[in-house]
Amino acid sequence: MSSIEAARRYFEAAADQLELSASVRTLLLTPQREVKVQIAVPRDNGEVTTFVGYRVQHDRSRGPFKGGLRYHPEVDGDEVTTLAQLMTWKTAVVDLPYGGAKGGIGVDPKQLSTAELERVTRCFIDQIHEMIGPNLDIPAPDMGTNAQVMAWAVNQYEKYHGFSPAVITGKPLELHGSAGREEATGRGVGIITRSTCAALGKTVAGSRIALQGFGNVGLHTASFLSGLGARILAVSDVTGGVWNADGLDIAALVSWLKQNGTLAGFPGSSPLTNAGLLTADVDVLIPAALGGVLTPEIARHVRAKIVIEAANAPTLPEADEVLQHRGVVVLPDILANAGGVTVSYFEWVQNLQQFRWDLVRIREELERVLVRAFDNVWGLAQSKHVSLRTAAYMIGIGRVARATQLAGF
Ligand code: NAD
User: Fold this and answer.
1) Per-residue pLDDT tens for 84-118?
2) How many angstroms does the Cα of residue 146 sit away from the middle of ligand 1?
3) Could you tell me whether strands 48-59 and 33-42 are parallel, antiparallel, or unpaired per DSSP bridges?
4) Which of 143, 173, 206, 282 is the residue whose CA sits 20 to 30 A from 104?
5) Fold classification of 184-336 (topology level)
6) Residues lining ligand 1, judged by CB closer than 6 Å?
C-alpha cells in the first residue's frame, strides 16, 4: 500500500464519523499547489549533478502553509504529498494557526560535501523563494536537514526579500532560532507519553519503555522520560539496538554514542535487533525512526500495551487494526510528534515580534498546548467510542473543514 493510500484510509475513517460529503472530502484531500523543480549544481570535482526538489502546499485555510524540508534519496512526489497532508491535520489538531505543507529533495546528504550541500540548498531556495514567505509558507528542518541547512536557506531567501527570519523555523539560535526547538519533538513525545499513562491510570515513573531510533527525536524522548523516572530498557538505531532489563543509563549512553559513533557495546547492555525491539517485553513502545515499521505481522507480536508514534506514519493501516483488536492503545503521530511544529510556531511568533522567550517559557507553553490537545483527543475518543487516531483526525479535519466553509469559495 502506498503512503498516499494509507493516509487516505485514516482520513476516510474520520470523514465518515464527521459525515463529510464526497465533494468536501475531495476539496480537503486535493493539495492547493504541487511544485517540482530542477536542482542542477556543480560538484566539488567540477561535474554537474541534477536533483529533483518538491514543495507541496496542501492547505492554508487556517493560516500560512507550514512543513519541513526532507533530504533523503527516497523523497518523491507521493511521499511529499502525503506528509504535506499530515501537516495540515497536525497543525489543526494542536490548534496552531497554520496550514500544511512539505518539501524535499531526492538526495542523500551523506554523499555530499558541506560545500555541495550548501549549493544544493541555495539552488532549491532560488527555485522556490517566490512561493514561500513569513505569511505564505514557512519551511523547517525534517529528516536529513538541520539548523545549518535552515541558516543557508534563510540567507538565500533574504538575498531576494531582505531581512525575514520568520520565513523559516528551526534556525540556529545565533540566527533568530528559538530556545528549546532542538529538544521540542522528543520532549513533546515525552509529555504525550506521560499524559497517556495518566489517562490509563498508570504512572510513567517505573514504566518499561523501548524506543526505536536514537536521533534527534529518540534521544530527547529518552532523556525526558528517564528524567521522569521511566525505565528505558531498549533503544536502537539503524545499526541495531541495546537492551538492559533494569533500564539503560541514558546520559551515559548518549556519551557512549558520541565517543564511539555506535550504540553497540554499551557497558552493561546486551545486543538487540530492531525487530526484537519492536516486540520486546515492555509497557510502552515508541517507534522514533522510519515510517511503515509496524507491519501486521509485527503488530501481532507487539507486547507493549501502549504505542506512541514519534516517527511519522510508523504504523501501516492493517497493523493499526491488529493493534486495536488486541487492545493496544496507539497515540497517533499527528499528536504524538507535534511538539516540533509547536515550538516552530513559537519561533515564528518570536521572529515576528522581534522579541525572545526564554527556555522556561517555551517549555511551559509547549506543555500547555500539548496537554490541551491530548485532553481533547482523549475526550472525543471516549465519547464517540473511536480510536485515538480517528479522534485526532476528526478534530484536525473538522477544524480545517469548518475554516474552509466559513471563508467561503
Ligand atoms: P534523525 O535522522 O535525527 O534520527 C533517525 C534515527 O533513526 C537515527 O538514530 C537512525 O540511526 C535511526 N534509523 C534510521 N533507519 C533506521 C532503521 N531502518 N531502523 C532503526 N533505526 C533507524 O531523525 P529524527 O529527526 O529523529 O526523526 C525521526 C522520526 O521522527 C522521523 O520519522 C521524522 O519524520 C519524525 N519527526 C521528526 C521531527 C523533528 O523535529 N525532528 C518532528 C516530527 C516528526
Assistant:
1) 999 999 999 999 999 999 999 999 999 999 999 99
2) 12
3) antiparallel
4) 173
5) Rossmann fold (3.40.50)
6) 142-143, 185, 212-218, 236-238, 274, 288-290, 310-312, 337, 340
74: Cβ contacts below 8 Å, ≥ 6 apart: 106
Helix (H) or strand (E) run with residue 210 in it? strand 208-212
Ligand 1, atom 13, lies closest to the CA of 238
- The length of the chain is 409
**How far apart are alpha carbons 91 and 382 in whole angstroms?**
22
Distance 219 CA to ligand 1 centre (A): 10
Residue 36 among the catalytic residues: no
- Residues 370 and 192 sit within 8 Å (Cβ to Cβ): yes
- In this structure, the dihedral spanned by the alpha carbons of residues 321, 326, 327 and 329, taken in order and rounded to 10 degrees, is -60
Locate cell 485526532: which residue?
A: 392
d(CA 163, CA 159): 9
Mind listing the pLDDT tens digit for each residue in 253-309? 999 999 999 999 999 999 999 999 999 999 999 999 988 999 999 999 999 999 999
Domain parsing of the chain, residue ranges: 31-175, 184-336
Which of the following CATH numbers is that of domain 31-175: 3.40.30.10, 3.40.50.300, 3.40.50.10860, 3.40.50.1260? Answer: 3.40.50.10860
213 C-alpha vs ligand 1 centroid, how far in Å?
A: 6
Which ligand 1 atom lies nearest to the CA of residue 214?
9
Q: Are 245 and 280 in contact (CB under 8 A)?
A: no
Q: For residue 144, which atom of ligand 1 is closest to its CA?
A: 2
Asked whether the whole model's pTM tops 0.90, one would answer yes
- Residue to mutate, 80, 237, 262, ligand 1, most ligand atoms under 8 Å from C-beta: 237
